[in-house]
Structures are given as C-alpha cells and as structure tokens.
Amino acid sequence: MKKILALVLVICFVTACKNGTESGSSKVNQSYEGKSFKFEHPGDWTITDEEDMGGGIFYIAVEKNGFDSSGLFMVTSFSYPLELDDTIELSMEDYETNTYIKNLEVSPIVDDTFNGMSSRSANFNFRTFGLKHNGKIHAFNFEDSSFIVIKQEATEDQKKNAQGFSLLENSFEIPSMETTME
C-alpha cells in the first residue's frame, strides 16, 4: 500500500513540475468521465496525466495551462476502502521525502467536506524552486471505494486558480452518487 501511494505521488509531483505550454485554448469547460468519477474542468486547464495503475487504482492530473501557471488538481481512486488519516499521512510523508520540496508544513487532519461528501483533509505548504506553494489534500470513502484529491498551486496564483478549482470540485461526481442523492 505504501509503495503504491509513493508511486502515485512521484507521478503527481513529476507531472506538477512539468512546464506547461502557452496555448490559445478555449475557455469552454471540458468534461471528463472515467470509470469511477467524472468532473468538468475549465478550457484553460488540461488533463496532463491519466493512468490505470492496476489493482483497482486509477490516477488523473489536471493542470492549468501556461508556463507561468501552477494550478494542479489530482485524483487517485481506489476500488477498495482505505483508512483516511493513514492515507493522508502517507501522502504527506512522500511529499516530505521529495528532494524538490523544501520546508513542508502540514496542518492537523480535520473533518471536512469535498463537494458535499464527508472527508478528512489537511492543508499543506512548501517551497519548490524558490516559490511558495500551498495545497489541500482530501481523502474520503464512497461505498466500497476510496478517493484522494490533492489541489496545489503557487501561493501567488491563488486568485487566478480559484475559479478553476471551484469548478473542478463542485462538478466532481461519482456515478453511483447520482442515484443515491436522488
């Protein structure tokens, strides 16, 4: 389990550190629908990584386009339940051992919500390549599955990314969630 989370987080960080390319991409929202969840993202955000890791684990990363942009939204789904606090702690331990991340600070894990679903979460901040970044990790179970959602960005980009993160979170749905909420 720890090795799987470490692999997922290494992929996440490598994806997050890639330089985006400036593009004249459309401002029209785009939809993503996978096996275990779906969401919308702004047209100036792009799915940069998507991987079925086997064993019931799926990972996707969505980044704001542009060389000077830093918005990153990552979802990892597991087709089995996990202990939420342990999952958050393991994820943050992997951030701590990443050589590009300096001065990682993680807040205590608290009860929270992610798009109306009960979650456990922690805020975090760190420095990488001289820039201060902040983020939030949510972990939640739904039926017999678990989800980890990480949002992170350079502190200086918070205002620019707020609308995109809001759309990503507020449109996030688990297909079986639609029928249970009716």
What does this structure look like?
Helices cover 28% and strands 42% of the residues. The chain is an alpha+beta fold. It has one domain: Mog1/PsbP, alpha/beta/alpha sandwich (Protein Transport Mog1p, Chain A, 3-Layer(aba) Sandwich). Strands 3, 4, 5, 6, 7, 8, 9 and 10 form an 8-stranded antiparallel sheet that branches. Helix 1 packs across helix 2. The protein is globular and about 40 Å long. The protein starts with a helix and ends with a helix. The model is unreliable at 14-25 (pLDDT under 50).
List keywords for this structure.
single chain; alpha+beta; Protein Transport Mog1p, Chain A; eight-stranded antiparallel beta sheet; two-stranded antiparallel ribbon; 10 strands; 28% helix; 42% strand
